[in-house]
Design goal:
It contains three helices and 41 strands.
Length: 499
């Protein structure tokens, strides 16, 4: 009897040890571009439990015993940051990863009070209402004589901008010219624009109905136009080319399309039974009430489908033959190079995603993470600080952010992904605006226009009118310049203080 108990105990211990060995392993991270003998902070986040463990050390490498699962490793040293997703196996194996630490990206203010949708050409910002209201504005740069101003685009005063995209030919705007005139019929127009948003070429797209709203996206060398039904898309290799019709087959007639993503010569369309915010019946008897989504991926002659349970917020074709899906604040990445999508990894706490020519942008934890989709690593391109995000638009070499400052005003910041930040001018402007000596600040590029707050007007008996006290104005200007100097706003910025 004792032998049986002993054997049973040994067996239980063996099974327990085997379970432990099979469920634990090591994660080892080696940092790149770190300074020696300077503190490095490693944050290890378990995706399942959403718990984070922090380790501070002077070592340029980090090794930790962890339970089997998926982890996010964030590494910070001074103003540099790196990120990577790690999958830890079992049996005390070691998963080794390399993380490159990088600085945030260079930024500059490029306009005030932007509308909901934005496009930055590299020299000028254009903004317009996303909801299809007529008109669009160009945000002119500041100079020695004036602060940044907003002017209407003349040829868009009655047109509804349905989208702007970049093609091999240049910048293309799709506009519904719904002109209120009996003599001039409404049309769908494609405008090839220069960098200053003047017209290089204008073409009527007669295959499109002026009574329908459309969207535009870059596709192959040209652009793709499609309506809300997403049953048929039109590919234009240039603004003057005849369209090529592309039929988009619905995987299930009970599902409705709600998102389309195009990248190179690939297309992905997302369908759901929950496009109106409420779960629709999947059949006449209403048996299924679950949110169901299907994403159809078309790659050249290869087509595949990804079926998901749960509400999908956004989809983007990304990386090299990858599909990025945002659902319930979790980004999931799939390999779509074959006939069946294959799940690769996830990133948690993601609010929104956007693409650029360089990487995928993730808005998460009050920061913009630039993610290299192919290897699951990234860097912090921008941290909001005290600003609030109100919009994001990706471009070729960077992206535009709509931000709300402490005066509840909207400003646009352009992030250049090819350069690193040197002065955090956005954070300095935010702090400068907190001064009681300042009514408002308007920043654009290297110009900072400031309206001082010298107190109420006083009666000038000699002039016989109310005016600001010159001594108080001068004192306010002195304090403002001193504050700017304390914040580290250098001489390479031109500060103009004017009432």
């Amino acid at each position: 009897m004792r032998n049986k108990i002993l054997l049973g105990s040994i067996g239980a211990l063996f099974l327990g040890a085997l379970w432990w060995f099979s469920n634990y392993s090591f994660i080892e991270v080696q940092t790149v571009s770190t300074a020696s003998q300077t503190e490095v902070v490693y944050d290890l986040a378990n995706q399942s439990s959403n718990k984070t463990k922090t380790t501070k050390t002077n070592n340029q490498s980090f090794k930790k015993l962890v339970a089997k699962g998926n982890y996010e490793v964030s590494v910070t040293q001074g103003d540099k940051y790196g990120f990577i997703v790690v999958k830890a196996g079992g049996f005390l194996g070691t998963t080794k990863k390399e993380v490159k630490l990088e600085k945030e990206r260079s930024r500059q203010f490029v306009g005030n009070s932007p509308s909901g949708c934005m496009y930055y050409s590299g020299s000028l910002l254009l903004s317009y209402e996303c909801s299809g209201h007529p008109g669009a504005n160009v945000h002119l740069p500041a100079d020695q004589t004036r602060s940044t101003t907003v002017v209407k685009v003349p040829f868009l005063t009655e047109g509804q901008v349905e989208g702007i995209t970049e093609t091999k030919e240049g910048i293309v705007a799709l506009v519904n010219q719904n002109i209120s005139s009996e003599d001039i019929p409404a049309t769908q127009e494609a405008y090839l624009l220069r960098g200053d948003f003047t017209i290089a070429k204008q073409v009527s797209l007669n295959s499109l109905s002026p009574k329908k709203p459309y969207a535009i996206s870059s596709y192959k060398d040209g652009f793709l136009v499609y309506d809300q039904s997403m049953a048929l898309a039109y590919y234009y290799s240039s603004v003057s080319a005849q369209p090529q019709n592309i039929a988009l087959k619905t995987p299930d007639p009970k599902l409705k399309p709600f998102a389309l993503s195009a990248r190179a010569d690939n297309l992905a369309v997302a369908y759901s039974n929950n496009t109106s915010g409420q779960v629709a019946d999947m059949d006449s008897q209403g048996v299924s009430k679950a949110v169901q989504s299907v994403i159809s991926i078309n790659k050249s002659s290869l087509a595949s489908q990804l079926k998901l349970t749960g509400e999908v917020t956004a989809i983007k074709l990304c990386g090299s033959s990858k599909l990025c899906v945002l659902s319930n604040k979790k980004l999931s990445v799939y390999d779509v190079s074959g006939s069946k999508p294959k799940y690769l990894y996830s990133v948690t706490n993601v609010d929104w995603i956007e693409t650029t020519n360089k990487n995928l942008l993730l808005s998460r934890n009050k920061e913009i993470l630039g993610l290299d989709v192919d290897n699951g690593s990234g860097y912090r391109g921008y941290s909001y600080g005290d600003y609030k995000l109100c919009g994001i638009h990706g471009g070729a070499n960077g992206y535009s952010l709509c931000l709300i400052n402490n005066r509840q005003s909207k400003v646009t910041l352009y992030l250049n992904q090819e350069k690193t930040d040197s002065d955090s001018i956005d954070k300095k402007i935010y702090k400068l605006q907190q001064s009681s000596d300042i009514k408002s600040v308007s920043a654009y590029g290297r110009f900072i226009y400031i309206s001082p707050n010298p107190g109420p007007m006083e009666y000038d008996s000699a002039a016989g009118e109310f005016d600001y006290n010159p001594a108080k104005v001068a004192a306010a200007k002195t304090r403002i310049m001193q504050k700017a100097k304390e914040l580290g706003i250098g001489n390479d910025y031109n500060i103009v203080i004017t009432l």
